[in-house]
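Researcher: I'd like a candidate sequence for this fold, 73 residues long. If you have to choose between options at a position, lean toward the conservative one.
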């Protein structure tokens, strides 16, 4: 099984592995910047190297939140 397949399989079980360290990622409240916006979300983070996994769903949801906030102003 390739590394890529193993990560995909783990993600399906909601248990992500860091590509670099092969360590189990832990949910952690993390701030990140995307498209110039600052977000805070609970994201899987590697306890070894600090790599954060940001899924497309999280980004899309957060972008929508920001867009709604901007429209309300
Ligand atoms: Zn790592």
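Model: Candidate sequence:
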């Amino acid at each position: 099984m390739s590394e890529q397949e193993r990560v995909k399989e783990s993600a399906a079980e909601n248990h992500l592995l860091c590509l670099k360290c092969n360590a189990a990622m832990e949910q952690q409240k993390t701030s990140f910047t995307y498209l110039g916006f600052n977000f805070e979300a609970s994201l899987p983070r590697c306890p070894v190297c600090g790599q954060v996994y940001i899924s497309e769903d999280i980004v899309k949801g957060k972008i929508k939140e920001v867009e709604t906030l901007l429209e309300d102003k």
